[in-house]
User: Which sequence fits this backbone?
């Protein structure tokens, strides 16, 4: 069972709103001070999904990222968790991609990476929250896709996937190879062990340019986009909070209840 | 591309009716179509859905495309993408909108790539640029910390999925007239590569979280599954529903379908009470449509106070019992 996992480096999505700022001209977030970028959380869970299959069935897990040179860190993170090989698409020709050109570039790399049964992605990247690239890779590769999965098993040469619904889940059977996007309901990703970190340190991440993957220049970076961002801004919040205070907690609680009653809310 | 015309809503049918999201999209789509001076159509897909065509017209559609097939009984990516691809190639819509629902999240991206066009997911507002006539798509990004405005210049239809409760449905009008067109998508069973084996329902008793007028939400700071019980009791007392941020769901303290936020449920109650949660942008994405928000948090700097109308800075465990007691007393008399 061979799996490929796509992981993206993003500004820490848990940055508190008060510390969040953007560059409106470059139309990007400015990473908060002392907050290093991270692997997009659902992608970490996608790595976990692949490793669970490897634990059960053997085979290898390959990790792929497109991004700045610093994205090697998120590939190494996946290697430290237990993945076998790492690949990084790093070329200024990929700059200013949107979902369309990203999916094309990743699919082109996947074709070069060799045999696979499954491709895993996160359900959405924690920066732009698009939730498109997984389906786009599958479309480019001509393979089926199942999105927002919480459990993936193999049975009779097919994958059995649980897809999260608002009130429950569907159990789907899908032919291989297939692409699956992973949601948080999968469960916590494993921690990297010290041994894993040491082993990952020794592994070389293969770096590819647009030319290395034989990408069509008209389909990558800004040239290959189908959407254009006109504006990025932080909405103003004019909210005003009335802090209820009492002599003690009990008194405060009663005052709050009375206040809500007065406002006809209860 | 130049001759792409009309606004198409991809409808969803639920237990014998149009989904709330479809009604909202017909309301929003009507405005876009009127601004452009183009038609508003809706497509309904399923095994038997023709009965809903008149309802779609009442809610604003000029035209209803009905695609019926036993292969569309269950949602499958390949079946629905295939049907939509055929319809779009036949009628060349200018704009195509869907709900940011389980179906829309899966169908919209795959279809956009199939049609080689641009898509913006999870929009909270759509408008027509008066100069370029392009669809301006407003979408929260960075978990909701920022908003982006996106257009699709090359590629038709211009595609967007729309967050629930961000558009208003029209009042249904029985006198509205429209055209119903049966469309044969000529689906091929062998092209459908996924099969649904079963649907497992995990419904929560009582008021549905998405529809509740009062939502009591607890966060990581609640501390344990047992500690959530009084929050559930308070929700019940107020005739509302219990929700949570992601950590209590991840920890298994509560079922995952109680998660409120960007990747959970969207709620817009009259009263939201947030207890021991910090107010992350991803959580607020799911509840910032609440009319009145109340926060109880021991940290005065917590972000939730920035978006709430009433706040209590305290250990919630010391506040909640007396609050529930007083509420009970007020409701009784
Ligand atoms: C792509 C993405 C999608 C996400 N989607 C969602 C989503 O849909 N929904 C969601 O909720 N999260 C989501 N998250 C996670 C989100 O970023 C936050 O991690 C999460 O919302 C934090 O939950 P919290 O506020 O309960 O916990 P914390 O941020 O840890 O806050 C706990 C709060 O409780 C307070 N507290 C502790 N003890 C007490 C006490 N005894 N009395 C009073 N106050 C107390 C603390 O002061 C603190 O403010 C997502 C994250 C990503 C990256
Ligand atoms: N630059 C990238 N490098 C690697 N994987 C990516 C990249 N962008 C997106 N992905 C994958 O596609 C998923 C969905 O991304 P998005 O459509 O941008 O929300 C992510 O969770 C990743 O698994």
Assistant:
């Amino acid at each position: 069972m061979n799996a490929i996992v796509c992981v993206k480096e993003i500004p820490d999505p848990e940055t508190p709103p008060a510390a969040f700022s953007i560059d409106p001209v470059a139309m990007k977030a400015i990473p908060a001070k002392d907050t290093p970028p991270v692997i997009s959380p659902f992608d970490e869970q996608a790595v976990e999904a692949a490793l669970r299959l490897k634990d059960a069935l053997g085979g290898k897990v390959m990790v792929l990222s497109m991004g700045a040179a610093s994205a090697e860190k998120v590939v190494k993170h996946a290697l430290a968790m237990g993945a076998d090989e790492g690949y990084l698409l790093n070329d200024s020709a990929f700059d200013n991609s949107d979902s369309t050109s990203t999916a094309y570039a990743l699919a082109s790399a996947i074709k070069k990476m060799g045999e696979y049964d499954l491709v895993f992605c996160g359900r959405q990247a924690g920066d732009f929250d698009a939730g498109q690239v997984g389906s786009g890779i599958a479309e480019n590769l001509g393979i089926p896709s199942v999105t927002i999965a919480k459990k993936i098993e193999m049975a009779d040469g097919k994958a059995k996937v649980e897809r999260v619904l608002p009130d429950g889940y569907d159990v789907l059977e899908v032919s291989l190879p297939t692409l699956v996007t992973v949601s948080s309901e999968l469960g916590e990703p494993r921690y990297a062990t010290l041994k894993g970190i040491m082993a990952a340190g020794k592994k070389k991440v293969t770096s590819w340019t647009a030319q290395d993957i034989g990408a069509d220049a008209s389909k990558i970076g800004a040239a290959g986009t189908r959407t254009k961002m006109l504006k990025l801004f932080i909405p103003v919040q004019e909210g005003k909070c009335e802090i209820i205070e009492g002599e003690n907690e009990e008194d405060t609680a009663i005052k709050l209840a009375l206040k809500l009653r007065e406002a006809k809310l209860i | 591309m130049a001759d792409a015309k009309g606004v198409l809503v991809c409808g969803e049918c639920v237990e014998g009716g149009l989904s709330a999201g479809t009604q909202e999209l017909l309301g929003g789509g009507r405005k876009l179509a009127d601004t452009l001076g183009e038609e508003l159509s809706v497509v309904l897909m399923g095994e038997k859905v023709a009965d809903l065509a008149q309802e779609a017209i009442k809610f604003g559609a000029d035209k209803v495309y009905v695609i019926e097939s036993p292969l569309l009984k269950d949602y499958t990516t390949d079946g629905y993408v295939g049907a939509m691809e055929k319809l779009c190639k036949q009628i060349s819509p200018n704009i195509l909108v869907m709900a940011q629902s389980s179906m829309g999240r899966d169908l919209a991206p795959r279809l956009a790539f199939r049609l080689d066009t641009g898509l913006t997911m999870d929009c909270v507002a759509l408008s027509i640029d008066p100069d370029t006539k392009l669809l301006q798509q407003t979408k929260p990004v960075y978990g909701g910390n920022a908003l982006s405005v996106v257009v699709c210049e090359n590629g038709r239809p211009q595609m967007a999925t729309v967050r629930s409760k961000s558009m208003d449905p029209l009042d249904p009008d029985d006198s509205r007239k429209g055209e119903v067109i049966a469309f044969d998508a000529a689906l091929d069973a062998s092209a459908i590569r996924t099969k649904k084996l079963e649907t497992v329902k995990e419904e929560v008793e009582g008021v549905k979280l998405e529809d509740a007028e009062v939502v009591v939400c607890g966060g990581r700071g609640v501390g344990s599954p047992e500690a959530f019980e009084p929050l559930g009791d308070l929700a019940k007392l107020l005739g509302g529903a219990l929700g949570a941020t992601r950590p209590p769901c991840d920890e298994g303290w509560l079922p995952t379908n109680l998660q409120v936020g960007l990747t959970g449920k969207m709620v817009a109650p009259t009263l939201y009470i947030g207890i021991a949660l910090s107010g992350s942008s991803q959580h607020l994405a799911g509840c910032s449509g609440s009319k009145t928000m109340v926060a109880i948090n021991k940290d005065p700097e917590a972000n939730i106070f920035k978006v709430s109308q009433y706040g209590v800075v305290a250990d919630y465990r010391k506040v909640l019992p007396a609050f529930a007691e007083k509420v009970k007393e007020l409701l009784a008399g």
Summary: Residues A 13-14, 41, 126; B 143, 219-221, 245-247, 259, 261-264, 276-278, 280, 282-283, 286, 297-299, 302, 315-317 surround flavin-adenine dinucleotide (ligand 1) (CB under 6 Å).
